């Protein structure tokens, strides 16, 4: 093993043309290694190719070209072992309405060939908070409970890698917190977690490393901390107490006056302090009615990296 949970080399996927649609190149030669034990975020705008990538890892979509290794197993040469190493919580709820949570987990374990004695059904029910609903029909479960059951189903074969495809899209805060607690717990137990999310704040909080996919290509891959430090720009917005023009500014600070009279200053927080900006404002005799600062966050990084492509 190389220390990577996933190794992807020159992965390409072209969806074939149909009588009504043209052929679509969804992945254009992706190279990506995902380290063991990480919580790895896969971000990208709609249609970037994230689901295609995840579905290839899950064995649900056939790749057109390239090499995929899951937990050291080549997907083409060792399909069974590579599949057994990964569990996927899908975006869409696909539960049999007449199965109870317990039955859903048992059937899923059976599909993966987990012997009865090795099944962890009760442990999983406990983890996903469905012990008291173990015998209820799935159709009687709330939306949040169904999502939790999907997580449980992804865990029945004790995979080393767990993939979560937009796990918190449209779920309430309570469920989101519970999901993240579970994910952290599983990660602390050694499981590698890969997740796609549209919530950049969530990626910022949860992920050690992030890859951004745009138009079928990985445009950036770095630690979350490095990505954030790429943009250490800060903005200070000053609302003067009476109409004022921009003051003279020292090097490293740029200013702009908005149509409604606010003064917007931008500077690098590593090089210039907020105090220097305020000093320039004061020495021009400008009184301040209100002031606020804004720091670049992952959203800014994301926009700056995906905007121009
Ligand atoms: N089965 C399919 N047949 C043809 N084209 C497809 C198919 N699935 C996806 N595509 C196309 O491939 C491209 C990538 O789609 P994909 O679903 O992988 O993107 P995504 O990043 O997951 O987006 P989203 O966040 O909206 O799910 C899109 O242009 C999409 O329309």
From TrEMBL:
GO terms for molecular function: ATP binding; ATP hydrolysis activity. Residues 6-240 form the ABC transporter domain. Keywords: ATP-binding, Nucleotide-binding, Transport. Pfam families: ABC_tran (PF00005). It comes from the Bacteria. This is ABC transporter ATP-binding protein. It comes from Pelagovum pacificum.
